[in-house]
Amino acid sequence: MSTMTFQSMPIPSTSAAGGSTLSTADGIDNDITPSSSLNTRSGAAKYRGASVEDLQLGPAFALSKNQNVMQAIELAYDRDFSYLPILDRNRRPLGYINVPALKQAWEAGQIDADAPVQNLATKFDRSSKTGRPYSIITPDTPLEELEEFLRTNDFALVTDHGRKFVLGVATKQDLDNFVTRRGNAF
Fold first, then answer.
1. Is position 99 within any domain?
2. At residue 124, what are phi and psi to the nearest 5 degrees?
3. How many structural domains does the chain have?
4. What is the pTM (predicted TM-score) of this model?
5. Distance CA 52, CA 146 (A)
6. Residue 138, pLDDT score
7. What are the CBS domain coordinates in residue numbering (predicted)?
8. What is the 3-state secondary structure (H, E, C) of the chain?
9. Statement to judge: residues 21 and 108 lie in one domain
10. Longest CA span, the chain
11. Nearest Cα to 70, choosing from 95, 121, 107?
């Protein structure tokens, strides 16, 4: 036989200063104004054991290293992407392009529309010579680890464990959307 425990139910109220609080049955007020936003909670509280797979990312869209600048810009803007992974002939990730920067350079006449994106991509450094670890983000990666990675990177490529296929692209916005969808009630 299992034992059930109950927590007191929050009761919304408005403070004298006009901010919102949650009052529990035991009289404790919890400030829920924007300064105590979802983003300030610890990863464990925000994500509750979720992994990258729980973000429900759309399928990855990547470019062949041989596609040209104009194709890259058009394809990225059709799909509303800011970053596109670049793949080699075996579909392994080589690097990525920053689409707004690429478009700006093309509009300024600094690059040719027919140039292959491979020449303009930011390459991934998989060597241990740089001292920077190569982070592998897979569907099983906990969201706390993804959040830590995104503190110093604009996006993460989600790959299989062998880094042979790009499965998706995750951003800080994807994490924020996940927290919003999941809600802040426990």
1. yes
2. -80, 135
3. 2
4. 0.65
5. 8
6. 95
7. 59-98, 135-176
8. CCCCCCCCCCEEEECCCCCEEEECCCCCEEECCHHHCHHHCCHHHHHCCCEHHHHCCCCCCCEECCCEHHHHHHHHHHHCCCEEEEECCCCCEEEEEEHHHHHHHHHCCCCCCCCEHHHCCEECCCCCCCCCCCCCECCCCEHHHHHHHHCCCCEEEEECCCCCCEEEEEEHHHHHHHHHHHCCCC
9. no
10. 74
11. 107
Residue 158 to residue 79: CA distance in whole angstroms: 18
Q: Which residues, at least 6 apart from 59, have a Cβ–Cβ distance to it below 8 Å?
A: 167, 168
- Give the length of the chain: 186
Tokens of 20: 């919102």
**58 and 111 belong to one structural domain:** yes
Across 114-132, average pLDDT: 78
pLDDT in tens, 9-61: 343 434 444 443 333 344 444 433 333 334 455 566 788 899 999 999 988 88
Q: 125-149 pLDDT, tens per residue? A: 766 565 555 688 999 999 999 999 9
